[in-house]
Amino acid sequence: MLGPPGAGKGTQAARIADELGVTRAASGDLFRENLRNETELGLLAKSYMDRGDLVPDNVTIRLVMSWISAPQQGDGFVLDGFPRTLPQAEALDSALEPGGIDRVLYVNVAEDELVKRLAGRFICRGCQAPYHAIASPPKEEGKCDDCGGELYQRDDDKAEVVKNRLDVYFEETEPLVGHYSRSGVLREINGEGTVDAVGALLVEALR
C-alpha cells in the first residue's frame, strides 16, 4: 500500500488482508509495539516519529525484514507504510527475489484533503479504536464508544506536525510512484471516495 499520510492506507490494508486471507504489517504499528516493549529500535524510532520525520532506512529495514522472514508470512502479506524511500524499495526488491512484489496499490488524495483528515484524528488509549472529529466522532467527547477509554491525538497527527509530515512524504516517498510504475506493478486509485468505494476499487486493482 502506497500513499500519503491520511490517505486511509491502514484501513484499506486491513480490509485487503482479510479479503486475501493473509497477514498485514504497518511499519508504524511495528515501531509502536517495539516502543511498548522498550526495545532499542522502538525508542530510536519514536524520536523521529514525534517530529513527523521518517525513521531512518537502516532502522526501518531491520524491523520490517525481520517480520517478513517469519513463517506466518509464507503465504503472502500486505505491507502498509513500507517501503517509504527508494533505498527501502530496493532492499525489499532484493529480499523478495525472485518475483518481488506482486502489486503496489497507490491511494492518491489531494493535499488539502489530507490536512483536514490528519488534524482531526484521535485514538483510544485503551483499545486503539480510531476516531475523527468530523468523519467519525465519539458519542461523548474525549471518550471511546467501545471501552470508555480516553481519546488522545498522536504527536504526529497534531496540526503543527501534519504539514511537515506531508512535506517529508512528497520529497522522499512520492518518487516510489515512479519507481513502481516503471516496473509495471503500480495501480493508482482515487482515495477520496467512501471507505467502501475506495475498497472496491482496490480489490478490483488486485484482480
TrEMBL record:
<dbReference type="InterPro" id="IPR007862">
    <property type="entry name" value="Adenylate_kinase_lid-dom"/>
</dbReference>
<dbReference type="InterPro" id="IPR006259">
    <property type="entry name" value="Adenyl_kin_sub"/>
</dbReference>
<feature type="domain" description="Adenylate kinase active site lid">
    <location>
        <begin position="121"/>
        <end position="156"/>
    </location>
</feature>
<keyword id="KW-0808">Transferase</keyword>
<protein>
    <submittedName>
        <fullName>Adenylate kinase</fullName>
    </submittedName>
</protein>
<dbReference type="InterPro" id="IPR027417">
    <property type="entry name" value="P-loop_NTPase"/>
</dbReference>
<comment type="similarity">
    <text>Belongs to the adenylate kinase family.</text>
</comment>
<dbReference type="Pfam" id="PF00406">
    <property type="entry name" value="ADK"/>
</dbReference>
<dbReference type="InterPro" id="IPR033690">
    <property type="entry name" value="Adenylat_kinase_CS"/>
</dbReference>
<dbReference type="InterPro" id="IPR000850">
    <property type="entry name" value="Adenylat/UMP-CMP_kin"/>
</dbReference>
<keyword id="KW-0418">Kinase</keyword>
<keyword id="KW-0547">Nucleotide-binding</keyword>
<dbReference type="GO" id="GO:0005524">
    <property type="term" value="F:ATP binding"/>
</dbReference>
<dbReference type="Pfam" id="PF05191">
    <property type="entry name" value="ADK_lid"/>
</dbReference>
<dbReference type="GO" id="GO:0004017">
    <property type="term" value="F:AMP kinase activity"/>
</dbReference>
